[in-house]
Amino acid sequence: MKIKILYEDPNILAIDKPSGISVHGDGRSKKKTIADWILKNYPKMKNVGEPMEGIPRPGIVHRLDNETSGVLLLAKNEKAYQFLKSQFKNREIKKTYLAIISGHVKNDRGIINKLIGRSPKDFRRHLAGRGARGEMREAITEYKVLKRLEILHSKFTYLEIKPKTGRTHQIRVHMKYLNHPVVCDSLYNPSAPCPKEIKRLALHAKSIEFKNLKGETVKVESPVPKEFIKLQK
Fold first, then answer.
1. Which CATH number is 41's domain given?
2. pTM over 0.70, yes/no
């Protein structure tokens, strides 16, 4: 597994996560994960952070969905882990994503402030708005239109997205709520047109901004996926 390192200091590591690789195992799949790569290349991170149901999550302070690519932040020691976790909890970390969504969004900018709960029909899915079940958690997503596209009579919108909270599937759920789900999303948008250039969920973690243990503000960026660029030509 080849993983590109985007930033590294004695305490913190940021990598460029490829699409199609899970951040950590689920106890069932035998596919290699980012956690496996960490344990191989940074064995001292083995006991950093909190395992989940016995599954190690070495230095993992947040996660990206399997098909989402881009910047993933990791803690190399327990002090850094707690330091970064505090920044996430207090919403001090700034994240920016790129997404290609179905249809043309009407407004050039917008903020979605809609609680997210569970779907009553599919345990894998989350839901915003009417019909959501279980604990309803605050979720805020800000977006800006970068470009409206029309490809073979199908309409798409290229967005820059800044989630202000960090709920599971938040961007995917909020885009679905707008009736403009992320393209090539097999869970939330299975039957909509998928541009031939895109072979995976069209969601990319472009950048993340945080403070390191010296108190310095650090912004790490991941290159825009080639397929996102090709789609706009």
1. 3.30.2350.10
2. yes
